[in-house]
Amino acid sequence: DAKTTQPPSMDCAEGRAANLPCNHSTISGNEYVYWYRQIHSQGPQYIIHGLKNNETNEMASLIITEDRKSSTLILPHATLRDTAVYYCIVRGFGNEKLTFGTGTRLTIIP
Amino acid sequence: DTAVSQTPKYLVTQMGNDKSIKCEQNLGHDTMYWYKQDSKKFLKIMFSYNNKELIINETVPNRFSPKSPDKAHLNLHINSLELGDSAVYFCASSQATVTAKETQYFGPGTRLLVL
Predict the structure, then answer these.
(1) Residue-by-residue DSSP string for B6-37
(2) B112 phi and psi, to 5 degrees?
(3) Is A56 helix (H, G, I), strand (E, B) or coil?
(4) Chain A residues with CB inside 8 Å of B109's CB?
(5) pLDDT digits (tens, 9 = 90+) for B64-114
(6) Which candidate from B94, B100, B108 shows the least CB-CB separation from A43?
(7) Distance between CA atoms of B17 and B32, rounded to whole angstroms?
């Protein structure tokens, strides 16, 4: 699976959009981009995933660049409960496991 | 209505003991996993079972033995516990992986402390 690179930490003001970048320049054609988050040592929580089109659900939006080498997770109106470590993971066909990196520690500032 | 549940939530034990952690999912999934998160917060897969068959074993010491009595349960038995086994263990489940679209859902974790 392709490796990912994320900034180690970010801050965002409460109520603003949080934009979390991820670089996955070695991604291959059948690999999906997944985002999970972990709130204070709870179990990782699935957020969203995509292949090449932008995706949106009730939690977030995922913007994938046209060359698929990077993506951005957008939390449109961040709340204090969004403070967590966010993991960007690339996962390919036939690969059952999720390979977690170090993620981005997002802190929402009141 | 917990989707993936684990017991116990906390486990404190002495070195050398044998202990088990249980996991159950009520999502009707075919595949279950065990992950380990160490003190540095690195989260790594240990095992994966699909329909009660082992499909991933990530070079975990053979003191760790997963057991899947049915596809809704995946238990983790650890023999001769060592200090380095102290960690948080997460169970997860998903539908069988076909296209890499299948999402994994995680349990709340079991915090193991070996003294």
Answers:
(1) EE-SEEEE-TT--EEEEEEE-S--SEEEEEEE
(2) -105, 130
(3) strand
(4) 41-43
(5) 999 999 989 999 999 999 999 999 999 999 886 555 557 889 999 999 999
(6) B108
(7) 25
